[in-house]
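Flavin-containing monooxygenase
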Amino acid sequence: MGPGPSGSRELVESGSTDAEDAEKPVPTAKSKCFCYITYSICYTDIQYNPFKNVISANLKVPSLLFLPRILRKEPVFNDDLPSRIICGTVVVKPNVKQFTETSAIFQDGTVLEGLDYVIFATGYTFAYPFMDDESIIKSRNNEVTLYKSILPPFLEKPTMAVIGLVQSLGSAIPTAELQARWATRVFKGLCKLPSKTTMMDDVDEKMGKKLKWYADMAF
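Predicted structure tokens:
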């Protein structure tokens, strides 16, 4: 666990909290109070659980159009979250300043007492330890250069597909399934690929549009 709010390391080391990622099941005690330390899309996979009280402390500033690019992130759509916020089962809070054994102190001075669990869903680091040459995926300036965010355009033959290395507007799992379906059709010869130049032009166009809106934060 990296640097975090004051007291967070002590809580983890004492076993008072659960350090979880967004794909692992959280405790099922519906009468407990949870505090999620979240990063962007990680929270959308967790907040469906009908707990009695959920406090979400976001680590990033929301993606508002008037913010500078360095503060923007790709949007994520979730049908259930707004209604949970409206009815009060989910409460969005600023960053956590400090943890005690049973409470969380936020940067706005408010205090959450009677805290039962702290769930850390702060994302992860992209790495490819199984590849000898990461330039197949990151061919320039640490940017992911994949045609349709799936195929390395510089391979002699399309024999490799990268699935899931994309941030979609919705759930990641259905997106990855569609990527796998399309890649399979390419492997079987049912979908013909354009030239390498055309594929790189497509990559450049999409990257250019992304950089107009968001900061240069490549995987």
